[in-house]
Amino acid sequence: MEDNHTVMDTTLEQLVGSLKDTPGALLPILHRIQDQFGYVPDRALPIIAKALRCTTADVHGVISFYHHFRRSQPGRHLLEVCRAEACQARGAREFERHVKERLKIGFDQTTADGEFTLKAVYCLGNCATGPSLRQGDRVLSRMNPERFDKLVEDLTTYKLELK
Ligand code: FES
Fold first, then answer.
1. Residues near ligand 1 with C-beta < 6 Å?
2. What gap in Å lies between CA 139 and CA 129, rounded to an integer?
3. Which pTM was predicted?
4. If 0-12 CB within 10 Å is exposed, 13-18 middle and 19+ buried, where does residue 81 land?
5. Which pLDDT tens digits describe the chain residue by residue (163 residues)?
């Protein structure tokens, strides 16, 4: 029976192999890997480096340059708080403080229960109605402590249906 690492390596090799000949292949490869696994695992670096005939340091440099890429498994819910100027003018600093206190984590960290990962972003294109927060595919407007607590509650509450 294949272990998880072997399965992951096989998937990585197939994925990298399918994109390695495209022009500027590194970024498309990194995006596909993150789409597939939710992050770019350490195991991917030598596979990418070998396919693209570069060093793992080269691959690491590109991953580090782009904040978009994650190096560790994210929580079940990714929460991205906007820290750019327009949101700051609308109270994002105070909102951010509440978010960190509520989750008991800082940016680029995941809660102990694996539920939430917190990331900083710099503009979500929702400037007029900040403070803004992206959760999954949706951008939420006019965030404040009460709305955030409700969001956390909704994402972590499993409702029992009584018949
Ligand atoms: S500054 Fe926050 S969405 Fe643009």
1. 82, 84, 86-87, 123-127, 130, 132
2. 10
3. 0.74
4. buried
5. 457 788 899 999 999 999 999 999 999 999 999 999 989 999 999 999 999 999 999 999 999 999 889 888 889 999 999 999 999 999 999 999 999 999 999 998 999 999 999 999 999 999 999 999 999 899 999 999 999 999 999 999 765 556 5
84 CA closest ligand 1 atom index: 1
Secondary structure class of 60 (helix, strand, coil): helix
Q: Which of 83, 87, 134, 140 to mutate to test the pocket of ligand 1 (most atoms within 8 A of CB)?
A: 87
Q: Is 111 within 8 Å of 73 (Cβ atoms)?
A: no
Q: Count CB atoms within 10 A of the CB of residue 133.
A: 26
